[in-house]
Amino acid sequence: MKTETKQKVIDAAIYYFNTKGFDGTSVREIAKKANVNVANISYYFENKGGLLEHLLATYFEGYLSVLENRYNNMDLKSATECLLLVVKDTLMYQKENRHLARFVHRELTLDTLLIREIMTTYLAKEKYYLKSILEAGIRQKEFKKIAIPLTIIQLKGMLIMPFMHPQYMSEVLHIMPYEAYFTEQYGKEIERWINETICESYHSVQKTGRTIALPV
């Protein structure tokens, strides 16, 4: 019952933080939508700031576990396969947590003490994992001698954009980023970008008619 109450608060907070913004949302509104007492929020999160910190930490702990899992198994696969699996898993993780992902990505654009702490605690680890995979690919001559920071910027931009701007995706482009077909097709487009931009052997792969496919 306690877990259910806590989750109701989290779901209500994500809804209001996305529609009204963090500053425009009151604790009473969250409690009313969750159908709980305001005291429940104080019990689980202390205050609205504690709730915000919990949402950010929860999202990034899940996301980093995705990266860490692929990084730890990199010795069993090529760097190219590892990077493609990171793309597949990241798209799926954001799809499964799309409302939270939208809020988190928007919140990261702010310059606050909490966001700086998130950068230091979580995003520094993200950089380490992505940088390590790209460096391994360069050492193994799978990847071109790319500028790693710029490559990370491009890759993250492609991965984040659909889930940071779902309204633009649906209203303007008429694409639904939360549907399974989108993650599959968009994953293939990012795979194509990786092959053309990063992979050393893309042209020879094309000539032989072979492609590196994301696992189903």
Name the descriptors.
216 residues; mainly alpha; Tetracycline Repressor, domain 2; disordered C terminus
Give an account of the 3D structure.
- The chain has 216 residues and is an all-alpha fold.
- It folds into two domains: 1-46, Homeodomain-like (Arc Repressor Mutant, subunit A), CATH 1.10.10; 53-208, Tetracycline Repressor, domain 2 (Orthogonal Bundle), CATH 1.10.357.10.
- The protein is 75% helix and 0% strand.
- The protein contains eleven helices and no strands.
- Helix 4 packs antiparallel against helix 5, helix 5 runs antiparallel to helix 7 (113-139) and helix 5 (79-96) runs antiparallel to helix 10 (180-198).
- The protein is elongated, with a radius of gyration of 20 Å.
Question: What does this entry show, briefly?
Answer:
This protein has 216 residues and is mainly α. It has eleven helices and no strands.
